[in-house]
Design a protein that fits this description.
Elements lengths: L5 E2 L13 H14 L8 H7 L3 E8 L6 H15 L1 H4 L3 E2 L8 H6 L2 H11 L16 H6 L3 H20 L10 H14 L3 E5 L6 H13 L8 E10 L2 H24 L17 H18 E2 L10 E2 L4 E2 L2 E6 L15 E6 L10 E3 L2 E2 L4 H14 L25 H11 L3 H12 L7 H8 L2 H15 L13
Parallel strand pairs: 2-4, 2-5, 3-4, 5-9
Antiparallel strand pairs: 1-8, 6-7, 9-10, 11-12
Helix pairs in contact: 6-8, 9-10, 12-13, 13-14
Length: 473
């Protein structure tokens, strides 16, 4: 379990009377790792009805890979596991309270530093529509050393604002501020969204440890269920998408500088750290996590893969990607989830079914497909190479995010015809663009669906013929 995001040890320093370390360890694994705390009923009833259930959703992937979309997928799944817990307050990424990026880009010192970079003398000769922070200006900028210097300045400004400087009037350490807000959210029993690249699990483990400490080994307050979201994209796609986001945020920021108005959130560009090394760290970590924790219990290919990792950590990994947009259609707008991989032992009580009691996207086919994609994304000869600064970035093009889609097509070519047909049918049907569990939530249970069917028949005048009972005399 070394290096994996799981907590196996109880909180030390709490008085345990006359109990051996083995008994304390077993209590922790039962509470935090077994979902059997605070209930005398079975595990299923505990998960479904217990009011102390809460969620931690961890978004992982390269920068600008589309992690926000993954959070929406995870929330739908949270609603199926325990609807009352889903309806509790969320500390979401959109609110900015638990996003280090939001804390930094809204920091007054960072805004001032970025404004100084944008108003340097060397940029005065550029027309307003050809500034380096515009799409046209970036594509026309043919001086690599100057580009690199600009990127280094932006990265240094961000890192300085993240760590804080003691000589600042408004001194803030963004990471410390984030941890304080995280603890406050746990104490209030909020559901939490957390964003990270996944290059290292140290910060995630520290957050899991904070939850264990704050909830007294998941016994006295809340029991958190952890869902991981991995949004796949190649390193080149991440590079291009970061630039497009930078151009979009720079426009209102530079306009505020010219008009001498209050500065909005400052743009951030991190492509100088989007390298082959970071790409390998992220996806190799994901490969190791899935190999260690998502395993086939029997040799039967029809049997679904199950989670085998003990302790408190990521229970289920939702794997998604951004399929190519198809213009003038809703196809692929919502159809982004490609696998649901259980990782922890307690995930066996959390995997929900959508139809005919079959679990979602976690058999051998989906396991092998995710592993194949990750291996291809780390291949130095193909998609794992250092990104190239193309001469023309087209942010409005529908051809973005094609690499993972290409890898999936290659995988399907070597798969069985039956499984390929099933996979393509689900993804090509516009009506099935919305995830199946979202449909099941709207439809309700079997009894509710029967009542709907009866009402529909009555409206259409198609009542079933039934024998009239004779009145007893």
């Amino acid at each position: 379990m070394d290096g994996l995001p799981y907590i196996l040890e109880h909180v030390t320093g709490r008085p345990y009377e006359n109990r051996t370390p083995k008994m304390i360890q077993q209590e922790f694994l039962n509470n935090c790792g077994g979902l059997v705390a605070n209930t005398q009923e079975n595990r299923k009833s505990f998960v479904k009805n217990n009011p102390k259930i809460r969620y931690l959703v961890v978004g992982m992937g390269l920068m600008a890979s589309g992690k926000t979309t993954g959070f929406k997928e995870a929330r739908n799944y949270c609603r199926l596991i325990n609807a009352s817990a889903y309806n509790k307050p969320w500390e979401s990424i959109d609110s900015g309270a638990l996003s280090i990026d939001e804390l930094v880009t809204n920091n007054e010192n960072y805004k001032t530093d970025v404004a100084k970079i944008f108003t340097q003398k060397e940029f005065e000769e550029f027309p307003d529509d050809r500034k380096p922070w515009t799409q046209f200006g970036w594509n026309q900028w043919r001086d690599p050393p100057e580009k690199q210097q600009f990127l280094t300045q932006m990265t240094d400004a961000y890192n300085t604002a993240r760590q804080g400087r003691e000589d600042w009037i408004w001194y803030e350490d963004a990471k410390k501020k984030y941890i304080d807000k995280l603890k406050a959210a746990i104490l209030k029993g909020k559901n939490i969204e957390y964003e990270t690249t996944g290059a290292r699990f140290d910060t995630l483990k520290s957050i899991l440890q904070t939850i264990v400490e704050t909830t007294f080994n998941c016994k006295n307050k809340y029991v958190y269920i952890v869902l991981g979201v991995l949004n796949l994209c190649s390193i080149q796609e991440s590079f291009n998408q970061q630039l497009c986001r930078f151009f979009a945020k720079s426009k209102p920021f530079y306009r505020a500088i010219l008009n001498r108005e209050a500065l909005p959130s400052a743009p951030r560009i991190g492509i100088s750290v989007t390298t082959q090394v970071q790409n390998e760290l992220i996806y190799n970590n994901m490969l190791a996590l899935i190999k260690a924790c998502n395993k086939q219990i029997t040799t039967d290919p029809a049997i679904f893969y199950k989670g085998v990792c003990l302790g408190f950590g990521i229970d289920i990994l939702l794997v998604s990607y951004n399929p190519p947009r198809i213009e003038r259609t809703q196809q692929n707008k919502f159809n982004k989830l490609i696998a649901t991989l259980p990782l922890s032992v307690r995930s066996r009580q959390l995997i929900k079914s959508t139809k005919s009691n079959k679990s979602i996207l976690n058999n051998r086919f989906y396991h092998n497909m995710v592993m194949y994609i990750l291996e291809q994304l780390t291949s130095k000869s193909r998609f794992g190479k250092n990104p190239v600064d193309f001469a023309a970035i087209k942010c409005d093009s529908s051809s973005s995010f094609q690499d993972v889609h290409l890898i999936i097509q290659e995988f399907l070519q070597d798969s069985s015809e039956k499984q390929t047909a099933i996979f393509k049918k689900v993804r090509s049907n516009i009506q099935k663009a919305t995830p199946s569990w979202t449909r099941s939530l709207k439809q309700g249970g079997k009894r509710r669906r029967r009542k709907k069917t009866k009402r529909r028949r009555k409206r259409k005048g198609k009542k079933r013929k039934t024998r009239r009972r004779r009145k007893r005399r």
